[in-house]
User: Fold Nucleoporin NDC1 from Pleurostoma richardsiae.
Amino acid sequence: MAPAPVRRTPYKDLLQPALQRRFTTAASTLLAIAYIQAVLLGNWSSYIWAWFPLGPAGIKTGFFFLCGLSIIILRIAQYHVGLRTSNSGFQTFAQNALKPQTVEAIVSYAISSWLFSQVYLWSVPASANLNWIAYHTGDRARLNEKPLFFTTHFIILGAWRGILHLYRDDDRLLLGSVRSKPGSAKEGDASNPLKRFGDEVPLLLIHAGTQSIVSVIANVFIYRLFLRTVAWRTALLVFRPFYNLPKTNMLPASIPFSVWLLLRCISAGFMLSFVWMAANTAFSTFLVKEPVKNGKPLTSESKDPNGSLLNGLKSKKLSIRCFAMWELAFIARDFEVRRKMIYEDIDRKDGPMWSQVYAICLDVLKSIDARIDNYGKAPAPPAPVIANPVDNAKPAQRISQPVRDDPVLLSTPQQKTFRGEIEKAVSQAATSPGQRSRLSPLAKKALLDAKGKLAVMKQEATSSRNPDSPFGYTTHRFLGSPFGSPFRQEFGRRLNAAILGTPYGEVSLYINATTALSQLAAHSLLEDRYGNVQRDISAIIRTLTTVTRKLEAFKASFPTHWTDVEGKKDAPEVDAILCALKESLSELITTFGPYSRDLRLGLTDMRLAKEAAGLASEKSVQAQREMREIK
Assistant:
């Protein structure tokens, strides 16, 4: 009797608890920061209640923690892996400006800042004169403009921080990558995230202080010129039902700015900015840990480790697929027991474990090859719809003549005008675009003149470095300024969009796929008892060679756009993929070079592989040095 099949645990069911534990660590770190800030704002007239958690300090800690927790919740709702791939910053803005996530980010920061401002106003002593209602003469209540400016300043600060959050793509998780040689490149070391977070704290303090000072200076002018009247009337509308305020909406004669108030705005803004930055940094640091638990791969807890890993590698969600590929790369390099499990797992429903892993990794690398081949080509037309046999039936023969739709009364012919001819041509182009144009000579001449002027303007714009073109010179100056930065189509951005795809492209997916493939192949020489990997070595080397050569040639021939005024051909993401491809190819050549004939690799295959890996150039340089020494 065949044994009962083992239930395969989905990869996300293994990944989600790990992410929840990391979220708890990030939230605990944020809670400690909130408690320190609450103690600093405490009333030290009582040395016990100033720090005792079950008193005012605990209440303020809870509210400050909520201000940072709202940002972590925002990150959980909107996190993604991979960089945003687009040709320019303006294109990214056009793609994301109207999405609900954009409004959600700005509103989350604005509510967080408003809550922090109200807790701060509640915490300061009465001598600070920051109560919403003031009693100057008699018993008549007056609206105090100082807390109004304080609150408005923080709402603007929150909205601006939300925009900055979107601009810098803070929702992205930077996943690590595994290289063939440990320590050969940055691998996203997450072995001690608490230490990494501590190393970031001084930089966070500097950024928080800078942001608080700049925001106060800017908001003084913004509030005075644009928002004072609206904020004053809104505050009166809110407080009039509860207080006997004057009926007039006139603004106070004096401005609310004072040195002490601005200093309080700076100090409170510094505290809030640090909470936000600490929340973002803690989330990004603690959640992006290696997919390893207790020194073992994450899927080791599953009853079917290989099946759970395959489930993650085949996931349609990019984040799960990237985490699974990251784990596979670690297994291929560092865990011998799990490697042997992959080699020896040959009785799976969809084929041996190695064959499935080999196909998945190869498809990831071939996707780069496919994007290079399809770059600049028109998208393939949709597949033709197969007609229903009923639709192909011969229509019934018409017995009577169709009803004529000619006008009953013939109008007198009108004189042809230029405007009429243009309207007629546009109407014909809209209703029957396949027919030839029947523009009059006058309209044709005007159309040709307009096309000529547009061509001249386009040529002047694209030749922005031409000093003889005023329009081109102005365009060049604008694109070189900070205001023109969103419109520049820089070399690196365009190359990333072409190689990694849109709207997101994760570099670590390709690096880890390359490492996993090469490491599993290299270790199979000693660990693969059945010799299943040997059949695919030649295909792996040929694929790595083809992808490396194509990617290198594509980058070298990729043109710069006329808006790229700097013209720097820098693409660190593509360079990282190229470096991983060359490292893996070099290791495979070194390992399987002596057995190239047995693996059906010809001399041409090995020569091309060595050239792609850069081994041929290194040997030629070494030979030249030896010749010089002999001479």
Q: What stands out?
A: The longest strand covers residues 133-135. The chain is about 60% helix and 5% strand. Residues 296-375+489-630 form one domain.
